[in-house]
Design brief:
By secondary structure, the chain is α/β, with parallel strands linked by helices. It is built from 15 helices and 14 strands. The strands form five sheets. The protein has a five-stranded mixed sheet with strand order 2-8-7-6-5, with helices on both faces. The chain has a three-stranded antiparallel sheet with strand order 9-12-11. Strands 1-10 form a two-stranded parallel ribbon. Helix 5 links the parallel strand 3 and strand 4. It starts with 21 loop residues before the first helix and ends with a strand. It binds ligand F0G.
């Protein structure tokens, strides 16, 4: 018999989680104004809000913390991290930052000017925010297949190179500072980008004289998909694949809270010394001196170790197959999902789950609330609430898809938890026709409303 894959670690420490009653959850969600961000974590049994900063560190990471060097300048922890980044990405220059969006802030302060155009594949919210905040525009060039929930494409996060070339051709010279490729493509459902696509985008970047920056938050999961889906990569190590991916780029921004399995941290890594020097000034203003930039020495040590653990094939296999297992169970219960399954999360297609709830009543948020009521699971709406209102007309913007994201933290939940999640979702699916109305906004912020919105039942 072929042996099944299994986790390449065992559990040394546990954290209690409380399984509440339905009555308690009814009360708590009302007190939270039907916004899951307002819940206290003790009111949540299984937390799938995000895979960011929620992973479990290893004994080696914790021991690296004990040997952290807290010197203001030139700490050994900085050099440990520099070596690990050089080893895994091939970038010689690096600046630590406190998280991914801080890396965007520092790098974009150098590169993005008013009136610029930054093409990419479904820029993450903060990436887009940092571009738009500078009065520049983010142009989404993701392939069309990404918009259809059930179209199977092995690299559904890819950049449409025709769309991209169109943007590069029609934008005046000097107005495109860089192209940003996000691996994996979180916004499109945790979908990977192929090596071939990165290579093609890099060739276009060179042809038009613009830089290529990779948003590498989930680069290791992307490398896993390249290894398992793309011809010619099956025999390569994840670190070799990662180095090749980055070899086509001029630099990267990183939220270390994802694939580097730490609870806080980020960095910028670059090939060009001049750009590194320019970014250093902003790093000092916004983050901290160039050898700590918002991170303590112990955290840089844990991050260096996390980069190696996050790129181990056996670990990635068990992680991505755990996500896939959840997807497979939900699918066999008949629940409409975004396919193929993403690397870090399963996305439920809420429009086709709660078919009788109009989009004005926020079907994805309604479903997220139902999943919480049913079993204490916290998920996140990626739909009309997140999409905000049009800045000019103040009308709701209705995105292509209404999704609920079930993001799986790294090394945190067991297969039994995954089965519990699937059972909760199936129960809600079985009673979907009894959910006849959605939610109404009581109070909302001007932008990024989904974090603080207050809702009530219709
Ligand atoms: N880029 C991508 C692709 C991300 O998914 C995130 C964060 C960031 C950048 C920003 O990094 O949070 O460290 O400042 N994504 C989280 C999520 C918040 O839940 O998907 P950060």
């Amino acid at each position: 018999m072929e042996l099944p894959f299994s986790e390449p670690y065992k559990i040394k420490m546990v954290e209690a989680i409380y399984r509440s009653t339905r009555e308690e959850r009814e009360r708590w969600i009302r007190d939270a104004s039907f916004n899951l961000f307002n819940l206290r974590s003790e009111q949540v049994y299984i937390d799938l809000l995000t895979d960011s900063g929620t992973g479990a560190m290893s004994d080696r990471q914790w021991s690296a913390i004990m040997t952290g060097d807290e010197s203001y300048a030139g700490a050994s922890s900085f050099y440990n991290l520099k070596d690990a980044i050089w080893d895994i990405t091939g970038f010689q220059y690096f600046l630590p930052t406190h998280q991914g969006r801080a890396a965007e802030n520092v790098l974009f302060s150098v590169l993005v000017k008013e009136g610029d155009i930054v093409p990419g594949n479904s820029h993450f919210d903060t990436t887009k925010g940092h571009i738009e905040f500078r009065k520049a525009k983010a142009v989404d060039c993701t392939i069309e297949a990404s918009k259809s929930p059930s179209v199977w494409h092995p690299f559904k996060g890819n950049v449409d190179t025709e769309k991209l070339e169109d943007v590069l051709k029609t934008t005046p010279a000097g107005k495109v500072p860089f192209i940003i490729v996000t691996v994996t493509n979180n916004t499109a459902g945790g979908q990977p980008v192929s090596m071939e696509n990165i290579r093609e985008v890099s060739a276009l970047a060179k042809k038009y004289g613009v830089k290529l920056i990779i948003d590498g938050a989930r680069f290791a999961e992307n490398a896993y998909f390249i290894k398992t889906r793309e011809k010619g990569y099956a025999g390569m190590e994840i670190t070799e694949i990662s180095r090749e991916m980055f070899s086509y780029a001029d630099g990267m921004t990183m939220s270390s809270k994802k694939d580097a399995i730490v609870n806080m941290g980020g960095f910028i890594a670059l090939r060009d010394e001049k750009l590194y020097r320019q970014a250093s000034t902003y790093n000092i203003i916004y983050e901290g001196f160039i050898t700590y930039g918002g991170m303590s020495g112990r955290d840089m040590n844990a991050l260096a170790q996390g980069l190696y653990e996050g790129t181990e094939f056996r670990y990635l296999e068990s992680r991505i197959k755990q996500v896939e297992y959840l997807g497979t169970m939900l699918k066999s219960a008949g629940i409409p999902l975004i396919e193929p399954f993403g690397g870090h999360a399963i996305f439920i297609d809420a429009k086709n789950f709660l078919t009788s709830i109009p989009r004005e009543e926020f079907p994805a948020q309604t479903l997220a609330v139902e999943l919480y009521l049913e079993g204490g699971i916290r998920t996140v709406e990626i739909g009309t609430l997140l999409a905000d209102r049009d800045p000019l007309t103040r009308e709701n913007r209705f995105p292509e898809l209404e999704m609920v994201r079930l993001a799986i933290p790294r090394r945190v939940y067991t297969y039994r938890h995954i089965e519990y999640i699937a059972a909760v979702a199936s129960n809600v699916f079985d009673r979907r026709h009894s959910i006849k109305s959605g939610l109404k906004i009581k109070r909302e912020a001007q932008i990024m409303r989904h974090f603080t919105v207050e809702l009530e039942r219709l």
